[in-house]
Amino acid sequence: MEHILYEVKKVVVGQDHFLERVLVAILAQGHLLVEGVPGLAKTLTIKTLARTIRGTFHRVQFTPDLVPADLVGTRIYNQKTGEFNTSFGPVFTNLLLADEINRAPAKVQSALLEVMQEYQVTIAGESHPVPAPFLVMATQNPIETEGTYPLPEAQVDRFMMKVLVGYPSEEEEFVIVNRVTGPASAVTAVTTTDQLADLQRICRSGYVDPSLVQYAVRLVAATRDPARYGVSNMAQYLTYGASPRATIHLVEGARALAFLRGRSYVLPEDMTDIAPDVLRHRLSLSYEALSEGMTPDHLIRRLMKHIPAPEKPLDTHVKVDANT
């Protein structure tokens, strides 16, 4: 994973948080929703990543006239043979970039989200599995809202994380300009999709202490019933809380983050670091919250202050090992 990150950093300047989350999503076999203005290397990142893992990459520009068949494929009649042939769509790839997903109508969004959940496509009654590993990175443009179709809360829940990508610093932008206007950097393939699948299996064997799982459960449950956890003043700001999928993704994401940081066990900081990215798109804010300019991140920070992570979750196991 270090080699992959090194190769991607040859091309992409800065965006360390974003790159780390992309690798977490790959290891945890989740999908990523990215929000950021145009020109922040979202497409470049995923394209470069595909090269480093010898995987396939497709980019789909979502537009209002897109139909599900443009995405998943369709059956085409062959006049010579008199038979129907299956034409596969761009979802049959390892890394799929769904650019400006909120510009496509609900039918297309549903078709994509079905593939994300089932890892297969049904065309004319036949099921076709997509290649493994399979990662969808969908982008949203926060600038223009005209002609957009907001993703329903129930469908957004399929994404493991929502990452906010910001502008680069002056120093980073200086390096970006020099790289883009200078000679192109060669990116080397450092692994294969089979090796990546092995890494995913190793990552899943990482240890998560029960106290950390309990912390994830409490944090997510507090978004549904804040009063029960001593933050009753937040109930007016939340219409709906996060689903059990959030708890699962919180544990899986923390485990993948620990793996990236060179550990086979999860620490509290792994879970607290990834919690905002896992929860921010799963909270449905009330009119009171919107009128007061509240954001999901504000509410998540307040919840995390009231529900502290366990300080020494591995203590009991260390003592048991010492005795044996």
From TrEMBL:
Q: Which Gene3D superfamilies match?
A: Magnesium chelatase subunit I, C-Terminal domain, P-loop containing nucleotide triphosphate hydrolases
Which PROSITE patterns has this protein been placed in?
SIGMA54_INTERACT_4 (PS50045)
- Gene Ontology terms describing biological process: regulation of DNA-templated transcription
**Gene Ontology molecular function, alphabetical:** ATP binding; ATP hydrolysis activity
- List residues of the Sigma-54 factor interaction domain: 1-141
Pfam hit, one? AAA_3
| Residues making up the signal peptide according to the UniProt record | none
* Keywords linked to the UniProt accession: ATP-binding, Nucleotide-binding
Q: Tell me where on the tree of life, at the top rank, the source sits.
A: Bacteria
Q: From the record, what ranges are coiled-coil?
A: none
- Indicate the family of this protein: Belongs to the MoxR family.
Under the heading PANTHER family, the entry gives: MAGNESIUM-CHELATASE SUBUNIT CHLD, MOXR FAMILY PROTEIN
- The name this protein carries in UniProt is MoxR family ATPase
State the species of origin: Noviherbaspirillum cavernae
